[in-house]
Write a structure and sequence with these properties.
Strand order of the largest sheet: 12-13-14-11-10-16-17
Radius of gyration: 23 Å
Largest sheet: 7 strands, mixed
Number of strands: 22
Number of helices: 13
Shape: globular
Helix content: 25-40%
Strand content: 15-25%
């Protein structure tokens, strides 16, 4: 009997969908088809690629409401937000990468030299394997899928089992847009099959978004081959609220940054440092706003926090909270402040009297859990922000642009925000340092990883 998996909806515990794993022969056939389609696709004009990709993006937007509800049922984010994953960030990123391709992929001229024509051309790699996560199933995958196809590559997408239907929607959209057969494919496969696929010499590049543990497994699988693996991994993203911050604005944005998507965001706010002169005022306002959130069935229009993706993820976060309280932390917001719901529904948790000996301030929570600490000055804030194995994003809340720049130069992070958090600007490279991964997507630089330079050195006289 062919093995497969079930998508268990965190909304109500029901089996939302069932799928079979592809057989090994089906996987081999998909890779062969991808390789067969590559030569003709790489010769397709950039204008034609853009036309097809734009049609696919519009197809996504046209179906955003229905597909938004699918996201809600697969991973639990409230339906008041899920359609905008497609209408907002997905559309914005895709459109930018399509438009920017014309400049990013053009030949790079070098200085003139009499008797010679010299330039560098960016050539597609071949078959790109995209391993996408469940927390933002379209936002994360579009970072690679669209630019990979625009660059002339073929793509095989393997989505997290929890949001496997999203891979099927990509295929539907590209088919409707007229993408040639074999340029984009998806596979429902096991972890063992993923490892075998990475070992396959026909795979030219691997893009993975997920956990640090998963990233290590991908790196190991690719280690015996001369290919690159782009790894976007975890985060423990900090925020620093200076004494000159607009406090109400900082509170509003940091509550959202900590709890949106039930905290299941790689770049969500998980630890906050507040100047001691503003600490009490900030904490009071933060707690008051947090208590206005509604944890409930995400299919209801007024729900702001739905369930976590699965009970095991909830249990991990609860254990972090328990450990912190045992070490002296104090809970200012917890389950007692919200109507009781069964797992995996988890109320937002706000902790104070925390320190870096506690996992809740050092290990990724990926949950609606945040710790808040007072700091005496910028120096202490910088030290604490850098005291982490992660470095995806960090933010500062201040009115002083010069201070924001000087402090940002000292913070070890892939993206540095001032008066903003938990956001990807498609014109800026999305990257991390330390255990937050390697490589980058988005911006014009995002095309560098999906192409190889080829130098043309022509003696013309």
């Amino acid at each position: 009997m062919q093995k497969g998996f079930q998508i268990i909806s965190p909304v109500d515990g029901s089996v939302y969908a069932e799928r079979s794993y592809a057989t090994d022969s089906e996987v081999d056939a998909a890779v062969a088809k991808s390789c067969y389609s590559f030569p003709s696709w790489r010769k397709t004009t950039l204008e034609k690629r853009a036309e097809i990709c734009r049609k696919a993006v519009q197809y996504f937007v046209d179906h955003a409401d229905d597909w938004g509800m699918e996201i809600t049922m697969q991973m639990g984010r409230p339906v008041r937000y899920t359609p905008n994953e497609i209408k907002g960030g997905f559309k914005d990123r895709a459109e930018f990468m399509i438009t920017s391709a014309f400049d990013a992929l053009k030949d790079k001229e070098v200085s003139q030299k009499e008797g010679f024509k010299r330039f560098i051309r960016k050539e597609p790699l071949g078959t790109v394997l995209v391993l996408a996560p469940w927390n933002y199933p379209y936002l994360t995958s579009v970072n690679v899928v669209i630019p990979a196809i625009m660059a002339g590559n073929t793509v095989i997408l393997k989505h997290a089992e929890q949001t496997a239907l999203c891979a099927e929607r990509y295929a539907e959209a590209f088919k409707a847009a007229g993408l040639p057969d074999g340029v984009f494919q998806f596979l429902h496969i096991s972890h063992a099959q993923v490892a075998d696929l990475i070992h396959d010499s026909r795979i030219a590049y691997v893009a993975f978004t997920g956990s640090v543990e998963g990233g290590r497994a991908i790196q190991e699988a690719a280690g015996d081959r001369f290919i690159t693996a782009g790894l976007e991994l975890g985060g423990k993203d900090p925020a620093y609220v200076r004494e000159d911050a607009d406090l109400a604005f900082a509170v509003e944005n940091l509550v959202d940054g900590a709890f949106f998507n039930s905290g299941q965001s790689c770049c969500g706010i998980e630890r906050i440092y507040v100047h001691q002169s503003k600490y009490d005022e900030f904490v009071k306002a933060f707690v008051e706003l947090t208590k206005t959130y509604k944890v409930a069935d995400p299919r209801k229009a007024d729900t702001t926090l739905g369930p976590m993706v699965r009970p095991s993820n909830m249990a991990k976060a609860q254990q972090q909270v328990k450990e912190a309280v045992a070490k002296g932390a104090k809970l200012l917001v917890s389950a007692i402040d919200f109507p009781e719901m069964s797992a995996p529904y988890l109320a937002p948790h706000v902790l104070v009297d925390v320190n870096h000996s506690m996992e809740v301030m050092s290990e990724e929570s990926f949950a609606p859990v945040v710790g808040i600490m007072p700091v005496k000055d910028d120096v202490e804030a910088i030290r604490l922000m850098n005291d982490s194995q992660y470095g995806l994003t960090a933010s500062i809340w201040t009115k002083d642009v010069d201070k924001a720049l000087s402090i940002g130069n000292e913070v070890e992070t892939g993206t540095w925000f001032m008066n903003r958090c938990d956001y990807l600007d498609p014109e800026l490279a999305w990257t991390g340092v330390k255990n937050s991964g390697k490589g980058y997507t988005l911006s014009s630089l995002g095309y560098d990883a999906l192409t190889r330079p080829k130098s043309f050195h022509l003696r013309v006289s």
